[in-house]
Amino acid sequence: LTSYRAWLQYREKDQEKYTKTVAPYLKAVSVTVDNDIIERALDEWTVGLNEMFKQRPAVVRETISEGLAITLDPSLPNESYQLKTTEKRIQLTAKDANGVLYGVFHLLRLLQMEESLQHLSMTEVPKNPVRMINQWDDMNGEVERGYAGESFFYKDYQFIKDRQRIYDYARLLAAAGINAISINNVNVHENETDLIFDRYLMDVKQTSDIFNQFGITLFLSINYAAPMEKGIASADPLDKDVQAFWKARAQAIYQVIPNFGGFLVKADSENRPGPFTYGRNHAEGANMLAEALEPYGGLVIWRCFVYNCKQDWRDRQTDRARAAYDHFMPLDGAFKENVVLQIKNGPMDFQVREPVSPLIGSLENTNHFLEFQIAQEYLGQQKHLVYLVPQWKEVLSFDTYSKGMGTYVKDIVAGEVFKNGHAGIVAVSNVGSDYNWTGHLFAQLNLYGYGRMIWNPELTAEAIALEWVKQTFGNDPFVIKTIMQMVMPSWEIYENYTSPLGIGWMVNISHHYGPNIDGYEYDKWGTYHFADRNGVGVDRTIETGTGFTGQFHKENARVYNDLTRCPDELLLFFHHVPYTHQLHSGKTVIQHIYDTHFRGVEQVKAMIDAWQSLKEAIDPTRYTSVMERLEHQLYMAKEWRDTVNTYFYRKSGINDLHGRTIY
Ligand code: BDP
């Protein structure tokens, strides 16, 4: 149960002193407005106080002098709230019901962390208007790139009737500030088109109702060729029958689910159908759907993960890194207002290290969301402990120079720079039917951290991790310190023992787990490292390479294009260099590879030692499940180390300076 409760543990407090200082605020709660979301907030407050303090606050409508007073103020920004303590009363003033819910979760977080409520005086406004999760659940019950068991939405093409788990998921998401979700995989397979037909629509509605109570709007992924599954001859966006099909669908859906969010679309990508089949571009494709949803205020979220996965670009003409920009930049401004492009954080595909997608900061006249992946597809598949917020924070704080120095990704995707009507951040979920939601217990931190970070990108990765550790494991300073030492360097550790210097991949094909240096090298998916006896890396420069560096604004383009200025950690993403090339760090490329790989394994050993020191402090279930995964991580780290080092030793023929054994 402890694992299942994730960051909502509400552990009973045994600190008399603390309990005394907060007692007045817990006595009563006064609220005058009534709706489902506020009701859920009150439930949560009641349950939390009862479990932590054995207190049941009286819920009243009149004003109170002791306790929590909740009021609405429509003049505040959307979903925002203020917390202010005056003597024995906390005033929670929110813009709307979502604001109330977030404010209550904020207070519960403070109580879980045993922080003072005495001098609260703050205003919280979410930076990103849309804070979304994409489920990649298939209706057969599997989760694409799922590393935490089966789907808890579907089994054998039916919705799972017991919806308790969805309810608990919605609570966890709301506590982390999430306000939108798409509930099926972007790869919509056969039979799944029925999600927008009578066969499943009532189930979709019931699921939507659960999420709505927690302030979360529901979306569905659709198959672009859905009309053809239903007997229409084509899916051409300019075809009248196709247009009528989508209009009828929109009408039918909104009749059942009036606040339905809209469609998420993966088109012309990795063998999915799309407008290209009919010689139409993506603006024509997306706008046709947008027109159908427009009368109801629905959105079309259109993914930019479009590249030719059947074309070998070793001729350097069609660098996969270029694809999103090449496809979508020429269409900037051609999309309707209720179309939102969804852009992966990097130009390739959620690797351990990539530059930021150059589309962000270039699209000036098109609404767009940034897409992260919480599921650790290329980052250890939730068997390895990798805290992702430090990586995401680098993306958000990247300076695009779009409107001169200081045009950061975080401000662009929040819609502030180009005054977008729709803006925000989306991420691929990492949950499943496993008892602890995420397989690796520490992968809970990535889900929690994602929500907190996109609510407020100014929070440090460390502050977010601290919140999670305290809520999840309690307030013992030794436990906190030890876990923080494991968590904070974990992304760097993973990078150390896997693919070096921004080159990415080197994984087994299709399932993407474990080292395989040449796995994709002679394959068509376009993810090469070009290692030979002389050197390694991809030349993406303007003069001699694929020209990808030219997609950035000139300040960044100059840095990436210039071998002497390109940051070490992205060197092999942008340049092909000899093994003896000297990095800014002073090391040669080959020595860097050897050193980081030996070091990465030692760092995993240190993580295991740290966890071992907590054996007495953590319940056996959580202790053992994490330990098992850490041991597996060590095994895999060694395999990565030996595979990578051996490969480059054989290619280069250069010995390790320190004479360590390389097989
Ligand atoms: C890749 C995954 C694949 C997804 C695809 C996508 O390997 O399963 O369908 O991304 O984002 O990373 O559409």
TrEMBL record:
Protein family according to the UniProt entry: Belongs to the glycosyl hydrolase 67 family.
Keywords, comma-separated and alphabetical: Carbohydrate metabolism, Glycosidase, Hydrolase, Polysaccharide degradation, Xylan degradation
Database matches in Pfam families: Glyco_hydro_67C, Glyco_hydro_67M, Glyco_hydro_67N
Descriptive protein name: Xylan alpha-1,2-glucuronidase
Residues making up the signal peptide according to the UniProt record: none
Catalytic activity, EC: 3.2.1.131
GO cellular component: extracellular region
GO molecular function, one term: xylan alpha-1,2-glucuronosidase activity
Active site residues according to the UniProt entry: 270, 349, 377
Domain Alpha glucuronidase N-terminal, first and last residues per copy: 6-107
Catalytic reactions on record: Hydrolysis of (1->2)-alpha-D-(4-O-methyl)glucuronosyl links in the main chain of hardwood xylans
An example Gene Ontology biological process: xylan catabolic process
Subunit (UniProt): Homodimer.
Species this protein is from: Streptohalobacillus salinus
The protein's enzyme class: hydrolase
Domain Glycosyl hydrolase family 67 catalytic: 111-437
Domain Glycosyl hydrolase family 67 C-terminal: 438-660
